[in-house]
Amino acid sequence: FAGYDGPLAPCSYFKETPTQNKTYITDSWERTARECKGTDIKTFALIENILLAEQDIQKFSDNLNSYLEIASPEHLAFYYYGHNNQDPERVQKIVAEAIVNFKNKKG
């Protein structure tokens, strides 16, 4: 596998201003797919669902759904019950729904 990890929304602990402190995973997909094309290397994506402040959860959800429409990693991973989320139940539900939709799309 060749892969990448990254967030889909600004990250923060709740008392600081959310920032984009890492490259978004959406900015890594095209290069990874291009470099793996025509090889036996499969792609891996670890989508960081951590450090989400309340105001950025919807952006995470929107970007996750957009990303999964264009990307096709053979292996998809998230943190189980991502830490330091202001509303962890909401984030977990978003991730669970995205995984089901992604699985159904891939068949």
Q: Features of this protein?
A:
single chain; 107 residues; alpha/beta; three-stranded parallel beta sheet; 3 helices; 3 strands; 38% helix
In brief:
This protein has 107 residues and is α/β, with parallel strands linked by helices. The chain is built from three helices and three strands.
Shape: globular
Radius of gyration: 14 Å
Helix content: 25-40%
Structural class: alpha/beta
Let me know the number of strands.
3
The average pLDDT value, as a whole number, equals 91
* Largest sheet composition: 3 strands, parallel
Report on this structure:
This protein is α/β, with parallel strands linked by helices. The chain is built from 3 helices and 3 strands; from the N terminus they run βαβαβα. It has helices at residues 29-36, 57-70, 88-106, and strands at residues 2-6, 43-47, 75-78. Strands 1-2-3 form a 3-stranded parallel sheet. α2 packs parallel to α3 (88-106). The radius of gyration is 14 Å and the shape is globular. 21% of the residues are buried. The mean pLDDT is 91.
